[in-house]
Amino acid sequence: MSEIKTIARPYANASFEVAKTDGQTEDWLLFLEAAATVVQDGAMLNLVKSPTTDKEALTKTIFSISNKASGLEPSADRMNFLSLLSQNGRLEALPEIKQQFELMKQASEKVVEATITAASPINEDSLDSIRAALEGKFNQTVNITTKTDESLIGGAKIQIGDNMTDASVRSQIDELSRILTN
Q1: In the CATH scheme, what is the code of domain 111-181?
Q2: Where does 2-107 sit in CATH, by number?
Q3: CA atoms within 13 A on the CB side of 44
Q4: Which pLDDT score, from 0 to 100, does residue 182 have?
Q5: Where are the domains of the chain?
Q6: pLDDT of residue 162
């Protein structure tokens, strides 16, 4: 997993810099999302992995499908980017490149993604309060995704990037159990 992240990082950085310079980060993200989806298709993935596949024809096919799927006009920069990935045997890294690109875009726009997992659905007023508190703490816009997990019993877990705050009743019970058994 970390190997694919290492492989994808320079490509994501390069594509982000080109997109940012041209003011086309949203177009690039749409394109990368479409291209990543195309490459993940079983039949296409077999072609990507095959050493006998005509790389130029494959690149043109992925480019064409990705442009149509994203609703974008063809771009020489995006075609060159796909060609470079193809020549270097890195088309399989497109999903990770897209993910890293998206994180860079969010960071540049001062947006952070948060996932809140709670024992029961969270009402809009509570979500607004949580969002305001997180935006104040991080000094960024916070997009919140909610999930429900009844096994938490009560409370919630908040995941932002690699940071996890676990204020669930389940974690408190587990911690108390650990203390009592030691």
Answers
A1: 3.40.30
A2: 1.10.520.20
A3: 20
A4: 77
A5: 2-107, 111-181
A6: 78
